[in-house]
Write a structure and sequence with these properties.
Elements lengths: L2 H11 L4 E6 L3 E7 L8 H12 L1 H4 L5 E7 L1 H5 L2
Parallel strand pairs: 2-3
Antiparallel strand pairs: 1-2
Helix pairs in contact: 1-2
Length: about 80
């Protein structure tokens, strides 16, 4: 899997105002800005992203994903 493919999977599964993905093909880091994160704790935000990847996590197609999940307001404040 490439960074562009992973980015496309996340973007297809949820509304993202900003999305960056980088990694080495097995270990990934994503910065995801989504209005869907409003009012959610970090664990719920991560679970939402994991839900978009579904079977790809279970089959080890995406081995490890670290992420920074922000609301649009949090992103704008940076």
């Amino acid at each position: 899997m490439t960074a562009d493919q992973l980015k496309a999977l996340i973007a297809a599964g949820m509304a993202c105002e900003h999305l960056e993905v980088e990694g080495d093909g097995r270990h990934w880091f994503a910065t995801i800005v989504s209005p869907e994160f409003e009012g959610k704790r970090p664990i719920a935000r991560h679970q939402r992203v994991y839900a978009t990847l579904g079977e790809r996590l279970k089959t080890d197609e995406v081995h490890a994903l670290s992420m920074k999940t922000l609301t649009p307001a949090e992103w704008a404040a940076k």
